[in-house]
Amino acid sequence: MGISQNSWNQVTYGEKKVCRTMARDEDLGFRAAHWADLYSLLHGALPPGIILWGHQFLRSHNPEGVSFVRVQARVLSTSEVVEITGNLLVAADGCLSSVRRQFLPDFKLRYSGYSAWRGVLDFSGKENSEMITGLRRASGKENSEMITGLRRAYPELGNCLYFDLAHKTHCVLYELKNKRINWIWYINQPEPEIKGNSVTMKVSENMIKKMNEDAEGTWVSELARVIKETKEPFINVIYDSDPLPQLLWGNMVLVGDAAHPTSPHGLMSTNMSILDAGVLGCCLEKSRLENLASALEKFESIRLPVVSRQVLHSRHMGRVKQGLSLPGHRCFDPNDATQEDCTLLQQRNMPFFGYAPLLV
Ligand SMILES: Cc1cc2nc3c(=O)[nH]c(=O)nc-3n(C[C@H](O)[C@H](O)[C@H](O)COP(=O)(O)OP(=O)(O)OC[C@H]3O[C@@H](n4cnc5c(N)ncnc54)[C@H](O)[C@@H]3O)c2cc1C
Prior knowledge:
The protein has helices at residues 35-45, 98-103, 145-153, 205-218, 221-229, 269-287, 292-321, 339-344, and strands at 3-13, 18-32, 55-61, 69-75, 81-86, 89-91, 110-122, 131-132, 135-136, 160-166, 169-176, 180-188, 200-201, 234-240, 248-249, 252-254, 325-326, 330-331. It is of the alpha+beta class. Helix 6 runs antiparallel to helix 7 (292-321). Bound molecules: flavin-adenine dinucleotide. It comes from Anthurium amnicola.
């Protein structure tokens, strides 16, 4: 499904926007996949009818000493509130988790100090079939000037994740299957006001225009052009949190971003979520329902130390790449980086990168 990729960190500097390599990860074996491809694969593997779409979790109740959990959910299409009873509640409701809020009402996410503009450029030619002054638009195709220029500037695109660093900012660029380019540009700024229960922000035409102007002033023209040609770019406000002290309360357990809101610099938060599910499944299979409490404790003891270190490492990577202050009041400057600094940029430094325990 994904393409196996290495990683390449480079600095863009000077008026001429010269690029210099800082660090590479060879044999990284990283697989990049568009989330829709991954989610449809996972969904397809489930028995039909197992998912109740359009049900919003409201609250749950798990009285002490009782072996069931009662959940109230709103059916979004009718606003009817229904009750569902089960043995276990696995909360996979993301970094703004409502389930977590029940147990940790004072919990607050930590704003990272930056937000990310992002988008996916489709150059399959399928999306750009509109007629412009009688000619088919050629910019979005493999042999277009834009894509050939991009491949010249980023010769290992398709086999490599590019991290372009400039003064107090960085941009990630890589190719996905089916002729798509994914880019994420991190920009230091005060915490934006976000509305509703989402870390994705709506953007106006003026914001897009300003972002494109800034891209031209910061990145090589080939990258700025990809950003400009991407339809409907959007902003993710980047949050994480200090590691939680626990992941379970009675018969309720947190997994995924609900359990470990993390910044995305390890490029593996989905991986962490999938491993949570895998380990939880193994623990439950081994202990069976009669030993639910010990299965959940085992899950927590395996995953909490792993994800806690990964969250903190990812936070550090983000602060390094965004030139934010580090312990000792030092800021990383890609123009002035030592060999040791550059080594730190490698993705494989993420704790448990190649191996995370499934069972102990
Ligand atoms: C800028 C950026 C870049 C990223 N890059 C990468 C990357 O390169 N690689 C990677 O692995 N990860 C990356 N991630 C992270 C990745 O998107 C998340 O880690 C992953 O989606 C977490 O999965 P999850 O299932 O725990 O939560 P989510 O994907 O957030 O899913 C939570 C689900 O719960 C539902 N939900 C929420 N509240 C309720 C409720 N009350 N009732 C019912 N349902 C509810 C939501 O609708 C959603 O479907 C990135 C994230 C960001 C912001």
